[in-house]
What does this fold into?
Amino acid sequence: MYTYFKHPKAVCMTYLTHMYLSLYFSFILWIGSIQAFFHAFYPDVFITSTTDLAHSLDQILSISGCK
It folds into this structure.
């Protein structure tokens, strides 16, 4: 199933694992975008949210896929 996609295999994931991870990233980036939007107008809210998101993404990427 889904053997015609090369990228998931290249990063040592199945199609479904890659899809779930990508959808998770999409969701947390969407939340981060909303937080950054509010932070732009109200600088005292979500002060570290973008930095926290970047660290979280880096941690997730470092344990995902090929080792």
